[in-house]
Amino acid sequence: MYLNDVFTVPASLAGLPAISVPAGLSGEGLPLGLQIIGRPFAEAEVLKVGEVVERAAGFTHRPNLWWQA
């Protein structure tokens, strides 16, 4: 969990818009995300790029929910 903070906090501290989009699965089947960081006040641009990347990745995997097992 520490690495999650290390990789996501800098954009917040810098005041930059950022988004993480699903990009695939690791060799172990764990989800991988791609973080997109934009210029100041470019929130709409970051969202558009995130949508394009998510569609291009074609990531459709859904996790197995423990309560539905």
Explained architecture:
- With 69 residues, the protein is an alpha+beta fold.
- Helix content is 41%, strand content 22%.
- The chain has a two-stranded antiparallel sheet with strand order 1-2.
- The two termini are 26 Å apart.
- 0% of the residues are buried.
- The model has no long low-confidence stretch (mean pLDDT 85).
Strand order of the largest sheet: 1-2
Characterize the overall form. Answer: globular
Which range best describes the helical content: under 10%, 10-25%, 25-40%, 40-55%, 55-70% or over 70%? 40-55%
Tally of DSSP helical segments: 2
Contiguous runs where pLDDT drops below 50 for at least 5 residues: none
N-to-C span: 26 Å
**Total DSSP E strands:** 2
Give the structural class.
alpha+beta
Overall average pLDDT: 85
> What share of the residues does DSSP label as strand, in percent?
15-25%
Largest sheet: 2 strands, antiparallel
N-to-C SSE string, H for helix and E for strand:
HEEH
Return Rg in Å: 14 Å
How would you concisely characterize the structure shown here?
Strand 1 and strand 2 (31-37) form a beta hairpin. The protein is 41% helix and 22% strand. With 69 residues, the chain is an alpha+beta fold.
Detail the topology: elements first, then pairings.
Blueprint lengths: L1 H13 L3 E8 L5 E7 L5 H15 L12
Antiparallel strand pairs: 1-2
